[in-house]
Amino acid sequence: MGEPATVLTGCLAPIDRTGLEGLIEKGKADPKAIKTLSCKTVAEGRFRHANYIRDLPPYIVDEPPGLLGDDTAPNPSEASLAALGSCVCVGLHANAVHRGITVNKLEIEMEADLNITAVWGTGDQSEKPVGFTDVRMKVVMEADAPQEVIDELIAHVAKWSPVFNTFSRPVNMEIAAA
């Protein structure tokens, strides 16, 4: 009898192990493959924006009242932290399943420091870092593995997480009028 097609991971919803193994083999077969992702952001008024990704309902991003928004959704910086935490969680969960580790709990607590005095370039424009200067992540992971294995898993995922690496290294950027 072979490995189960679906691996139960404690209280987390199961991951299709066969599907995961298929993704692993596909990545090994074409290691230079590039996938282009897209998002269309539409300003709705004030600082609320609808972001259209694939065929999903719009993902809303807004600002809090202290930044003149309506406080209906995370602000852009908070949304980027959510993307970071989600990407690292996906990596941790997938790698745990791949290694046969059962995960009972997986959470990431994050904080990031940001100087907002430039007010999007309309306020204080003195020399300073723009964007996050420090991001602190604490992984809360309960699994059927010793802490050393979990620590190694976290380091491995930090090396291979697309969003973690986007945060931690320069990225080529282009912006221009359409």
Give a summary of the structure in a few sentences.
The protein is α+β, with helices and mostly antiparallel strands and 178 residues long. The chain has helices at residues 17-29, 76-98, 147-160, 162-168, and strands at residues 6-9, 12-16, 40-45, 48-52, 59-61, 103-114, 132-143.
Number of strands: 7
| Order of strands across the main sheet | 3-4-5
The largest pleated sheet is described as: 3 strands, antiparallel
Q: Round the mean pLDDT to the nearest integer and report it.
A: 90
Tell me the fraction of residues in β-strands, as a range: 25-35%
Radius of gyration: 19 Å
Poorly predicted spans:
none
N-to-C terminal Cα separation, in Å?
A: 57 Å
Order of helices and strands: EEHEEEHEEHH
Structural class: alpha+beta
Give the overall shape, derived from the CA principal axes. Answer: globular
Helix content: 25-40%
Number of alpha- plus pi-helical segments? 4
